[in-house]
Amino acid sequence: MDWLRSVGPAVVVAAVVLGPGTITVASRVGCALGYSVGWLVLLASGMMAVMTIAALYAGVSSSQTPGSRLRQRFGRPATISIGLVLFLIVALFQSSNNRALLLAAEYFIPSINDSKGLSIGLLFAFNAFVILFFLRARDVYKVIESAMLLMVGTMIVCFAINAIAGGVSPGSAAAGLIPTPDSVRATMQSLTGDIRALLATTFSVAGAFYQCYLVRERRWSVQEVKFRSVDSAIGIGTLGLLTLLVMWTAAAALHGKMEPSEVKDIASLANSLRPTFGPAATMVFAMGIMAGAISSFVGNALIGGTVFSDCVGTGSRASQPFPRRFTVAALLVGLVIASLSVLTIESNVNFIVIAQGLTTLGLPVMALALLWLLLDSKIAPKWLVVGTLFGVLLTFVVAIATIVKLVS
């Protein structure tokens, strides 16, 4: 039990990151490229672990909050801008969570695809319920941590069973963990598509940045962080494992049998589960997508609300009034974006991929802020500084790829 409590903060981040977007995008990548880009998931997960550990050191190195330190060094306007960038990233992720609920609802309410009003009404009703729960919960962090520990454990078991029963080739899966010239070339060619979205969901700088606040919630000391860094790496490794299991399952069931562009609704996504669950696959996948959306719904918004509140200077703890208000604001902005998108983008799957990909535009700002906090801490080992710098460079590569996609 002590070990479970120690990995809690990292699992919270992993559960937030492993939302329905990751499941959807990993399925599309597995369908398109098979087992060949497993190494990319390892790279993204490794960088996520590095940035998460960097945030641990940055969070415990000072009695001041990250927002306070940034305001002292760069001024209030620049710090508010940093907080706003993260808030908008979270809002985009939140909009994809909303569309994921509609994706799952396709199974339970078949007529929802024919009624935009029904779709938007369902989103408003669910968000109203979540906001009511959030405002009434007393110790938000403890509730979220306990729920997500259970959720991640359940997902590991379910995805592992399906990977085994689904005919995943151990040899092909292992070979895909080592980059080859062909797989690297395929990755670069797809960097403006699903690959970019996969990197955005697996290498979540916003999620890593929030560790600065989670360790403060847990009141860890510098010595504890040095000890708990391994636990955090294990927690983030769980995220990578789950992503690989989803991708491998899709590779076994879908690669070469259907085009990635055909993976656009709950039925096509559920094909990867049919080896295990047969006719019930669509229902099981719909429940999994819905569980992923719900597990990351409040946690994702809490990241945006807490960090933005701290950057503004109105509080940095989840239980304080302004972080709660800004969290509700993140929920509402995500709801509005998703509702508007229902009117313009018909496919829930396509919107999820687009929204996840657009978040990469703000990653360099968050990565640079985290790098400065780490350097300012003066307690980080050199390997961590070098690793974080590499992570910053990776965010610029992905952001530039996104800009190229938008321009072209």
TrEMBL record:
Q: Where is the signal peptide?
A: none
Regarding the membrane, this protein is recorded as: Multi-pass membrane protein
Q: Which GO terms describe its biological process?
A: iron ion transmembrane transport
Single Gene Ontology MF annotation? manganese ion transmembrane transporter activity
Asked whether the UniProt record includes Oxidoreductase among its keywords, one would answer: no
Q: Which Pfam families match?
A: Nramp (PF01566)
Q: Which domain of life is it from?
A: Bacteria
Record keywords: Membrane, Symport, Transmembrane, Transmembrane helix, Transport
Q: Which residues cross the membrane?
A: 36-57, 78-97, 117-135, 147-175, 195-215, 236-256, 276-298, 326-345, 351-374, 383-404
Would you tell me the Gene Ontology cellular component terms?
A: plasma membrane
As for subcellular location, the record says: Membrane
User: What InterPro entries has UniProt attached to this entry?
Assistant: NRAMP_fam
Answer yes or no on keyword Transmembrane helix: yes
The UniProt entry, under PANTHER family, shows: NATURAL RESISTANCE-ASSOCIATED MACROPHAGE PROTEIN 2 (PTHR11706:SF33), SOLUTE CARRIER PROTEIN FAMILY 11 MEMBER (PTHR11706)
Q: What is this protein called?
A: Manganese transport protein MntH
